[in-house]
């Protein structure tokens, strides 16, 4: 990056000694360990630490300026920029340092469905011939390839570097996920948003947010503070929590488009389940559109409509948007069929919270003649209240439950499993996730279906501080081929318990 004068990077409420206004800044960071000569170190008051305590280390590494909420002793010649809110200021600085952004950016929030909606919005735009990308839990997905990132909403420095890069490479349309952490920590405050979407709200992240209300308020920020008046808001209105989002959006002067059975922007008139596809009748501005959505599960209808609403809200032609829904592909690891044993399909899914697990199991039930089997676990260092709830949902909605490890992180994996097992009578326990998947696959009979939930696209398993390479896809595929070679009657791909004429094999 070319150097920028320090004053040009700072928000209007920053206080800076004018001597330093023209100081050239060649890089920015929030991590003292990453600071380099000529950089600005932004000291964040964190959850575990206060970044200002590391200002001296940043300076020792070459930082020439420090931004923060409180002054700390700094050597002569080092600039200090005082700001009232360091996280807000960081977003401003990052956006000023990496100035390019795609012209049209849509952000989606909600407890479940963000990754799916972001993928769908990107696919719809691409189908309309627009250079489109998405940023979220599965990383950056761009016309030239995919780059995995670790956060759903990257921190502002990483986020704006990415926005600048994709805009520079010709992307004009970008869909991104707005996580509650990201909204709460002002990670998106520097993003120029054209539209915002809301899917649903249920229990999640209560290890971080003190209450469900605080969690909801973080998500509301997208509509009440971040989207500029006149921007579009696509809101799924079939959930009771939706009203608060509609009210916030209306109060902000947004162009609200509600979607769903109760929606008035895109009204869902009917759903006709056709194998793993769904025939939808939709009403938009008085016209009725018939759409064959090539995805299973009621929840994917919700996601597809929010995505359509975002694209229409950003100016796309409605009929072309509805036509594009017919070619949507599910996001990686979201109710993704990875193969079949004895005709029993095996799905990898990212449900790691109660509502998502419930929706994923409900989505598969219509396709099961004998047993619905689920393998799942719960993440360590995350809201422990989710564990018994997920155990109870699995026991209620599946016929065979295997409780295994997800990402134990710093916790004792056996204690995490015990919390889920306590609410799941009849469940069996197999801690080793690979072994749990192999056991479930080996037992599959005609008429069964298997859901492997919780890790979706994740390429590793976090145990302690180590990330061990692990992929549900790879383990499941290996187990399926091992079962296939053992079982003479295995047919490979046909889930023969479904009427053949209702099948859409591409999506199975
Ligand atoms: C809980 C959480 O959100 N933490 C985020 C937060 O870190 P923090 O406030 O805890 O940082 P801290 O450890 O207290 O340190 C304070 C500051 O001192 C700095 N520091 C620290 C040590 C040092 O030697 N030198 C130094 O400069 C740190 O860089 C930091 O800026 O701010 C950091 C950037 O400023 C984020 O990288 C970090 O995300 C961590 C890695 C994380 O795991 N976040 C997850 C929970 C998260 O954000 N998840 C959401 C939701 C996912 C979803 O459900 O979809 C996401 O968007 O991914
Ligand atoms: N609209 C929805 N309602 C309920 N459950 C959903 C919905 N969409 C997806 N799910 C379930 O939640 C899981 C995660 O979906 P997705 O990755 O699209 O959501 P997300 O909001 O990005 O989640 P995360 O915050 O964990 O990244 C899916 O695998 C599926 O089980
Ligand atoms: N972004 C989510 C991902 C959870 C994934 C799940 N596999 C788990 O580890 O709980 C989180 O950090 O809470
Ligand atoms: Mg996500």
Automatic annotation (TrEMBL):
<keyword id="KW-0132">Cell division</keyword>
<feature type="domain" description="Mur ligase N-terminal catalytic">
    <location>
        <begin position="25"/>
        <end position="97"/>
    </location>
</feature>
<comment type="pathway">
    <text>Cell wall biogenesis; peptidoglycan biosynthesis.</text>
</comment>
<feature type="domain" description="Mur ligase central">
    <location>
        <begin position="108"/>
        <end position="310"/>
    </location>
</feature>
<feature type="binding site">
    <location>
        <position position="179"/>
    </location>
    <ligand>
        <name>UDP-N-acetyl-alpha-D-muramoyl-L-alanyl-D-glutamate</name>
    </ligand>
</feature>
<feature type="binding site">
    <location>
        <position position="382"/>
    </location>
    <ligand>
        <name>meso-2,6-diaminopimelate</name>
    </ligand>
</feature>
<dbReference type="InterPro" id="IPR036615">
    <property type="entry name" value="Mur_ligase_C_dom_sf"/>
</dbReference>
<keyword id="KW-0131">Cell cycle</keyword>
<feature type="binding site">
    <location>
        <position position="187"/>
    </location>
    <ligand>
        <name>UDP-N-acetyl-alpha-D-muramoyl-L-alanyl-D-glutamate</name>
    </ligand>
</feature>
<feature type="short sequence motif" description="Meso-diaminopimelate recognition motif">
    <location>
        <begin position="406"/>
        <end position="409"/>
    </location>
</feature>
<keyword id="KW-0547">Nucleotide-binding</keyword>
<comment type="function">
    <text>Catalyzes the addition of meso-diaminopimelic acid to the nucleotide precursor UDP-N-acetylmuramoyl-L-alanyl-D-glutamate (UMAG) in the biosynthesis of bacterial cell-wall peptidoglycan.</text>
</comment>
<dbReference type="GO" id="GO:0008765">
    <property type="term" value="F:UDP-N-acetylmuramoylalanyl-D-glutamate-2,6-diaminopimelate ligase activity"/>
</dbReference>
<dbReference type="InterPro" id="IPR000713">
    <property type="entry name" value="Mur_ligase_N"/>
</dbReference>
<feature type="region of interest" description="Disordered">
    <location>
        <begin position="482"/>
        <end position="508"/>
    </location>
</feature>
<keyword id="KW-0067">ATP-binding</keyword>
<dbReference type="InterPro" id="IPR004101">
    <property type="entry name" value="Mur_ligase_C"/>
</dbReference>
<feature type="modified residue" description="N6-carboxylysine">
    <location>
        <position position="219"/>
    </location>
</feature>
<dbReference type="Pfam" id="PF08245">
    <property type="entry name" value="Mur_ligase_M"/>
</dbReference>
<feature type="binding site">
    <location>
        <begin position="110"/>
        <end position="116"/>
    </location>
    <ligand>
        <name>ATP</name>
    </ligand>
</feature>
<feature type="binding site">
    <location>
        <position position="32"/>
    </location>
    <ligand>
        <name>UDP-N-acetyl-alpha-D-muramoyl-L-alanyl-D-glutamate</name>
    </ligand>
</feature>
<keyword id="KW-0460">Magnesium</keyword>
<dbReference type="InterPro" id="IPR036565">
    <property type="entry name" value="Mur-like_cat_sf"/>
</dbReference>
<comment type="similarity">
    <text>Belongs to the MurCDEF family. MurE subfamily.</text>
</comment>
<dbReference type="InterPro" id="IPR013221">
    <property type="entry name" value="Mur_ligase_cen"/>
</dbReference>
<feature type="binding site">
    <location>
        <position position="454"/>
    </location>
    <ligand>
        <name>meso-2,6-diaminopimelate</name>
    </ligand>
</feature>
<protein>
    <recommendedName>
        <fullName>UDP-N-acetylmuramoyl-L-alanyl-D-glutamate--2,6-diaminopimelate ligase</fullName>
        <ecNumber>6.3.2.13</ecNumber>
    </recommendedName>
</protein>
<dbReference type="Pfam" id="PF01225">
    <property type="entry name" value="Mur_ligase"/>
</dbReference>
<dbReference type="InterPro" id="IPR035911">
    <property type="entry name" value="MurE/MurF_N"/>
</dbReference>
<feature type="domain" description="Mur ligase C-terminal">
    <location>
        <begin position="333"/>
        <end position="456"/>
    </location>
</feature>
<feature type="binding site">
    <location>
        <begin position="406"/>
        <end position="409"/>
    </location>
    <ligand>
        <name>meso-2,6-diaminopimelate</name>
    </ligand>
</feature>
<feature type="binding site">
    <location>
        <begin position="152"/>
        <end position="153"/>
    </location>
    <ligand>
        <name>UDP-N-acetyl-alpha-D-muramoyl-L-alanyl-D-glutamate</name>
    </ligand>
</feature>
<keyword id="KW-0573">Peptidoglycan synthesis</keyword>
<dbReference type="Pfam" id="PF02875">
    <property type="entry name" value="Mur_ligase_C"/>
</dbReference>
<keyword id="KW-0961">Cell wall biogenesis/degradation</keyword>
<keyword id="KW-0133">Cell shape</keyword>
<dbReference type="InterPro" id="IPR005761">
    <property type="entry name" value="UDP-N-AcMur-Glu-dNH2Pim_ligase"/>
</dbReference>
<feature type="binding site">
    <location>
        <position position="458"/>
    </location>
    <ligand>
        <name>meso-2,6-diaminopimelate</name>
    </ligand>
</feature>
<keyword id="KW-0963">Cytoplasm</keyword>
<feature type="binding site">
    <location>
        <position position="185"/>
    </location>
    <ligand>
        <name>UDP-N-acetyl-alpha-D-muramoyl-L-alanyl-D-glutamate</name>
    </ligand>
</feature>
<keyword id="KW-0436">Ligase</keyword>
């Amino acid at each position: 990056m070319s150097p920028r004068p320090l004053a040009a990077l700072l928000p209007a409420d920053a206080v800076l000694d004018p001597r330093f206004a023209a100081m050239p800044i060649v890089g920015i960071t929030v991590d003292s360990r990453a600071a380099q000569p000529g950089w600005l170190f932004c000291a964040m008051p964190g959850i575990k630490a206060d970044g200002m305590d590391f200002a001296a280390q940043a300076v020792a590494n070459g930082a020439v300026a420090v931004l923060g909420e409180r002054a700390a002793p700094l050597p002569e010649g080092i600039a200090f920029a005082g700001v009232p809110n360091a996280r807000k200021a960081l977003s401003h600085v990052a956006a000023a340092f990496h100035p390019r952004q795609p012209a049209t950016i849509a952000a989606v929030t909600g407890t479940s469905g963000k990754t799916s909606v972001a993928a769908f919005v990107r696919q719809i735009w691409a189908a309309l011939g627009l250079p489109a990308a998405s940023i979220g839990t599965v990383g950056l997905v761009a016309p030239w390839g995919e780059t995995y990132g670790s956060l759903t909403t990257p921190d502002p420095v990483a986020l704006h570097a990415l926005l600048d890069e994709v805009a520079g490479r010709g992307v004009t349309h970008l869909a991104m996920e707005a996580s509650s952490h990201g909204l709460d920590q002002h990670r998106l405050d520097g993003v120029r948003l054209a539209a915002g979407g809301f899917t649903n709200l249920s229990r999640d992240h209560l290890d971080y947010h003190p209450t469900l209300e605080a969690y909801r308020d973080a998500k509301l920020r997208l509509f009440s503070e971040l989207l500029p008046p006149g921007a579009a808001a696509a809101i799924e209105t079939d959930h009771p929590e939706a009203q608060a989002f509609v009210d916030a959006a209306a109060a902000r002067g947004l162009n609200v488009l509600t979607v769903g059975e109760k929606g008035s922007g895109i009204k869902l008139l009917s759903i006709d389940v056709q194998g793993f596809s769904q025939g939808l009748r939709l009403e938009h501005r008085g016209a009725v559109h018939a759409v064959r959505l090539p995805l299973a599960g009621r929840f994917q209808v919700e996601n597809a409509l929010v995505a359509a609403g975002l694209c229409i809200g950003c100016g796309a032609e409605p009929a072309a948007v509805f036509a594009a829904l017919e070619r949507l592909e599910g996001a990686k690891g979201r109710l993704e069929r990875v193969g079949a044993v004895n005709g029993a399909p095996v799905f990898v899914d990212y449900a790691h919270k109660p509502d998502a697990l419930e929706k994923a199991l409900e989505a598969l039930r219509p396709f099961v003649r004998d047993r619905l089997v689920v393998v799942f676990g719960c993440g360590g260092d995350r809201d422990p209240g989710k564990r018994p709830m997920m155990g109870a949902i699995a026991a209620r909605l599946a016929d065979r439950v295997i409780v295994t490890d997800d990402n134990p992180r710093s916790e004792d994996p056996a204690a995490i499993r015990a919390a889920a097992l306590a609410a799941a009578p009849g469940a069996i326990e197999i801690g080793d996730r690979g072994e749990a998947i192999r056991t479930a696959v080996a037992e599959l009979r005609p008429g069964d279906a298997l859901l492997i939930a919780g890790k979706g696209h994740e390429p590793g398993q976090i145990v302690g501080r180590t990330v061990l390479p692990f992929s549900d896809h790879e383990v499941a595929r290996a187990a399926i081929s091992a079962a296939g070679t053992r079982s003479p009657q295995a047919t490979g791909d046909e889930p023969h318990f479904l009427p053949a004429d209702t099948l859409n094999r591409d999506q199975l």
